[in-house]
Write a structure and sequence with these properties.
The chain has helices spanning 14-22, 49-52, 62-68, 79-94, 121-136, 148-155, 171-174, 188-196, 202-206, 210-217, 219-228, 260-281, 313-327, 358-378, and strands at residues 6-11, 31-34, 44-47, 73-75, 100-104, 107-111, 140-145, 163-165, 246-257, 283-294, 299-310, 333-345. By secondary structure, it is of the alpha+beta class. α4 runs antiparallel to α5 (121-136) and α12 runs antiparallel to α13.
Amino acid sequence: MAARIIFHLDMNSFYASVEQSHNPSLKGKPIAVAGNVKERRGIIVTSSYEARAKGIYTTMNVGEAKRKCPELLLLPPDFPKYRAASAAIFSILRSYTDLVEPVSIDEGYLDVTERSKSQHPLQLAEEIQERILHELDLPCSIGIAPNKFLAKTASNMKKPLGITILRIRELPELLWPQEVVTMHGVGEKTAKKLNGLQIFTIGDLAQADERLLIRNLGKNGARLIKRANGIDSRPVDPNAIFDTKSVGNSTTLPRDETEYYILKETFEKLSRSVAERLKVKYLAGTTVTIQIRNFDWQNASRSKTLRNAVSQADEIFEIAWKLFTENWDETPVRLIGITVSNVVDQSELTQQLSLFNFEQHIKDEPILELVDNIEKKFGKGAIKRGVRVKSKSYASKTSFSKDFLEDHTN
């Protein structure tokens, strides 16, 4: 099989760069986009490189950021503006190949194997980078490699406005000496587990005993060894981003909270938000997970897997609130999140009968019998139980998630 040529394009400081593009007077100044600039819940979402040079980083709260950099200019997020910029970026990318896989609002993969037969990959990357900078006034970095993992790794090597080629034969020199936590796909928790197994560098991981890792990390252990050796057979799939695995939402509270009624109201609000997102995507899921971060930044999660999938706000709230009240030790809460996972299209659901839902099915029996009689008379499919009506899109006020997917459905 011929080697593929994959690009990973990553926009540099995307939200901040879009703001600077729309308002040139912000260029050269330390700016940051925060979720809520007036309260502590204002977490820095992204910052300009001028701000980063002064110690500002993503997830830092607004108060700390202002203390560290008093001249920092804080801006509220402008989602329509960012989505418009994202749509323009991906329009440029699709002018080069149909094999474009959006990963998020500001990054994506391109398979340019065919295009590279007539244009050198480096020249092509330079042209794409220059077009996005010239036409949209937005900087990006591009990684070039034979697979998605290495392309993603390469794009992180030089920012801003970098173009990096990463070949498998270069891994021992460029990648393996780095700490394992720096590897794409390895979070802090996984890194701690690996360190406990005496695996400290990416090179250690590449040469690790696969059976040992599978025993400690499951299937992910085998996958990580392959990645460390530069092995990744995933294709660039333009439709992959629509394969939603979970839907969730979280919020940082204005203060460390212990008031029962405020916590309950927050759970109710998050449950409604998650239910609305499930409705928009026509999904339901069988696992409900809550995430709690306390005043000391300690994270904890609890989940419950159900026999029947849920999608309604009251169902989600009942499960999430019970998980919380059964496990909360009254430690002040800083952040709350709710996620519904193991999702499926609602049209594919088959509900299992139980003592709790059989009455509803009994109520449906006369309708089912009527449908059966009509189909016997007029033929199979003469009447349908219902049709899906596409939900009206809603404007997300708190999420930096995948609302931008609507821009890729046309």
